[in-house]
Prior knowledge:
Number of domains: 1
Distance between the termini: 15 Å
Radius of gyration: 10 Å
Domain UPF0033: 2-67
Number of strands: 4
Largest sheet: 4 strands, mixed
Helix content: 25-40%
CATH superfamily: TusA-like domain
Shape: globular
Protein name: Sulfurtransferase TusA family protein
Strand order of the largest sheet: 1-2-4-3
Strand content: 25-35%
Organism: Faecousia intestinalis
Low-confidence stretches: none
CATH topology: Translation Initiation Factor IF3
Structural class: alpha+beta
InterPro entries: TusA-like, TusA-like_sf
CATH architecture: 2-Layer Sandwich
Amino acid sequence: xxxxxxxxxxxxxxxxxxxxxxxxxxxxxxxxxxxxxxxxxxxxxxxxxxxxxxxxxxxxxxxxxxx
Length: 67
């Protein structure tokens, strides 16, 4: 789980990049609270071959990245 709430870009993308590089997981969950960060993480994940599901959770968004 990557909790990037309260952070602005590029930090959420950097955190997801680190999670991908550390273990190349088949699934990563990411919590975000910034619309720009949601778009940027989704764009990065798609380029890395992940399918992204977005679910709003109150003021936050949960992204599930799956390979």
